[in-house]
Design brief:
The complex is a heterodimer of chains A (about 100) and B (about 160). Chain A is an all-alpha fold. Chain A is built from 3 helices and no strands. Helices cover about 75% and strands about 0% of the residues of chain B. The chains are: A mainly alpha (about 100), B mainly alpha (about 160). At the A-B interface, helix 1, helix 2 and helix 3 of A face helix 1, helix 2, helix 3, helix 4 and helix 5 of B.
Chain lengths: ~100, ~160
């Protein structure tokens, strides 16, 4: 298990998450894809910290995970609010600002 | 042994991720995310960070997925019609991103791994007593603010 291998796996997960963010039509699915990208970033940080023997990387990821949980709570309630107003959670239908 | 475990976890993780971005049913996508996150926790174990593996399963897989499933129940998880828009453009962009980043990673020589993180006691002292005690407490304030904010946003009888 080399550092490069872990980083490539993290990059692949990041790319898959990016595809989801760009392509999915449902707002909750986009949030799930954002989680994937977060997770890939965390994995890359831990891989580098493991390779260097740096304990602060673990602490950085602990904080990142906690902040992600806060972000998900607020993000989901925003989706809830938006879907209650627009009667849909499909992002293409949030087009009130378009002329 | 470690190598085999790593590749198995990598396959589980990436196929879970693929389910997240392709599944028609959002519940299925949430379970794909659970698979990917648990596999990541396994990878944290391999990278000698057992505390993070536990936090990942408890907070991420437990907390986030419960929230997501609740939201799916409320919002409705089925999309009528296509699940994605302009999938080819999105795929091209994400593959290009992967290629650029992978090229950058390949060019770096990290040297021999110094290896190993596992230091439960040192981590605890650093996080709770010495270096990061104040940020840790601030984090609890942030979480409280997020919970209150989520409640205020999502409540039904909100004054407009």
């Amino acid at each position: 298990m080399s550092l490069h291998a872990v980083l490539y796996v993290a990059l692949a997960m990041f790319a898959i998450g990016l595809y989801g963010v760009l392509a999915r039509r449902h707002a909750v699915a986009v949030l799930l894809s954002i989680e994937l990208m977060f997770n890939a970033g965390n994995l890359a940080i831990i891989a580098l910290a493991w390779s260097r023997g740096l304990l602060s990387g673990v602490i950085l990821v602990l904080f990142a995970i906690a902040i992600t949980v806060a972000e998900v709570a607020v993000g989901l309630s925003l989706v809830l609010l938006a879907s209650r107003r627009a009667r849909t959670a499909v992002l293409d239908d949030f087009s009130e600002l378009k002329g | 042994m470690t190598d085999a475990a790593f590749w198995i976890l990598a396959v589980v993780m990436l196929s879970g991720a693929a389910v997240v971005v392709t599944a028609r049913s959002l519940v299925r996508a949430a379970f794909g995310l659970a698979a990917a996150l648990v596999a990541t926790a396994g990878m944290y174990l391999l990278l000698t960070a057992p505390l993070l593996a536990a936090v990942q399963i408890l907070l991420y897989t437990g907390g986030v997925l419960t929230l997501v499933v609740f939201a799916i129940v409320v919002v409705g998880g089925e999309v009528v019609g296509r699940t994605s828009r302009k999938p080819l453009t999105a795929a091209a962009l994400s593959i290009a991103t992967f290629a650029v980043l992978a090229r950058g990673v390949r060019g770096i020589d990290f040297g021999p791994p110094r290896g190993g993180l596992d230091a439960g006691a040192a981590l605890g002292v650093s996080l709770f007593v010495k270096d990061y005690a104040v940020p840790f407490e601030l984090l609890s304030v942030l979480l409280l603010a997020a919970v209150v904010g989520a409640l205020v946003l999502a409540r039904k009888d909100r004054p407009e």
